Hints:
By secondary structure, this protein is α+β, with helices and mostly antiparallel strands.
Amino acid sequence: MAVCDASMPRARPFQGRRKVYWWGPEIADLRTACNAARRAYTRCRRRRHTLEEEGVLHTILGEKKRALRKAIERAKTERWEEFLATLNRDPWGRPYRMVRNKLQCAPPMDSMEPQLLQTVVEGLFPEAPEFVPPVMAPPEGHPEGPLIIPQSRTTNLSGQWSGALLEDFLVEGTFPGLWKEGRLCLLRKQGRSPDSPAGYRPIVLLDETGKLFERILASRIQRSTLDAVGTLRAFSELAEEQGQGVVAVSLDIANAIGSLPYAVIAEALRYHGVPLYLRRIVEHYLTGRVVLYEQGGTGGCARAGVGGGSQEGGGGDGAHRPPHRAPRAAGRHRKDRSHGPGGVRRWRLQANTALRVEGQSVQVKANIKYLGLVLDRKWTFEEHFARLAPRLVGAASALGNLLPNLGGPNAPCRRLFAGVVRSMALYGAPIWAGRLRERTKALLRRPQRVVAQRAVRAYRTTSHAAACLLAGTPPWELDAVVLAERYQRRVAARSRGEPPDPEEEERAARAAEEHLRQQWRDALEDGLYGTRTIGAILPVMEDWLGRRRGVLTYRLTQVVTGHGCFGHYLHRIGREPSTQCLDCGVEDDTAQHTLEECSRWAVERAALVAATGLVDLSLHSVIGAMLSSERRWDAVASFCEDVMSQKEAAEREREAAADALPLRRRRQGRRRRAFLRHDP
Length: 680
């Protein structure tokens, strides 16, 4: 019997189909009726009844199938809209995780064997061996920091019990033991073996108040990945000015953070002249850290490394400390010398140059990925943006699926998702802001245009400049310049040994914002596309960007941009044979004609004039009235909703007509079905 069971498993009883998310009693009844009609029709054909009876049963079957199909589509639409409605309560919920491919199965720790889990944890958090790092002489201009805590840095913490508590910890140089405990969460690494510690990425969940204290300490140490990249860039440029060459070698150290000795971090902080009170509290922060984990009701504990915290400028000291002189190439790695402009020597690597590391050949390439940035030999960052652009477009398109023009999340959620793509795009901006070219700017504008269109519910033909102005988001290349200036101010203050002055920071931020607005305004004035929208908003640009009320709806955006159900626009995209207004017969049916002149909408226009008190219905005057009060904004939005919904219904009738022109044929795509669902 055992041999039979092993060779041919026993048949299991049918468990039934899983219930789909859109199933309901109505669909069940329609499916039953559809199956009955199908059986009646097939029975009629087998028994060779008359053709007339067979035709009647075939017609009934078609009606039942269409009713079932429409009910299923309607149920799917309702469930999808309910699914999207949850974003207003939780923007980072299941819809966001689904489109960003962040849905996870059960956590790996729940399905791992206890022995494997213990091995993985011990591999990720090994016991730190006794290690005494060599003492490094501080560089010139970086004396050992004082023990006294600067008063200007602690005054902003006073006034609340939490601020006073954190200030006491700073004075005592202690980090509470409760905040050193964190719960372990393992994430699988794609393409890695699940039986090795290298196949998992550890995430340690810490106390929120402790993380706030960590951020305070990190801000005072004031060292980041940008400093490391900036040091490398300055060193490379200096070597180029001196006619020397630089070869950057990146080493991938397995579990570098988890196995880094604490003594190395302490010595690096001393070398960089970190004040003594900060070094003392960091040393206390690094000792006695504990990672807690559990599986199936059983728990464990491991001594943690630095990975659970957010300290910056620690053991990665080699990246922050510039060498005393540029290394010269020698032997087989010698570079060819050629003279460039001005007699400066240029260094060029020979073809197929490689380095030998423990018997392995490492090919020297034109670019290297370092701390999330792809660096090339000329620091143009073209390869960085070439790799980044597809990710940005993919993220923008994925989030755009959650932001339909009709329905969907509200305006705050849309702005939040736009900020997600912006944060991806502007990573490392202080480093590459000054090296942008027209080609790299175009790579940045494409995803920004997509998210800006989704934020204001605009047609995808709306220009980048108009969409960004409507959404209130400056071009990312200008944002990058502001971030770079802010970073340079902090670096300059740190080089002088001065703490950041909050008032000076605020004044500089306001000045940078004004400069950004002026640059943005100049770019809009020189723009070639979306001139009608830009010309109407530009005189009141400050009020438009600073408004606290008024939401752009789908049909209001059509009137403002001119991209919608207008004869002029439909003719331009090939949906109408001419630009003529089919309501009043005027030759050119534009958004302004619909708003100000078309006799078909005289009643709606009279109601708009009565509600707003406007005599001039030019777009500039309408925008100014909308910004003046919420009541006027709602009146304009109501006019656009009434008029545009009727124009869209008339367009669908023309498309569905039997004698419709080929270019007016009714479309069956996803967007058309969405319009029909909201406006049956």
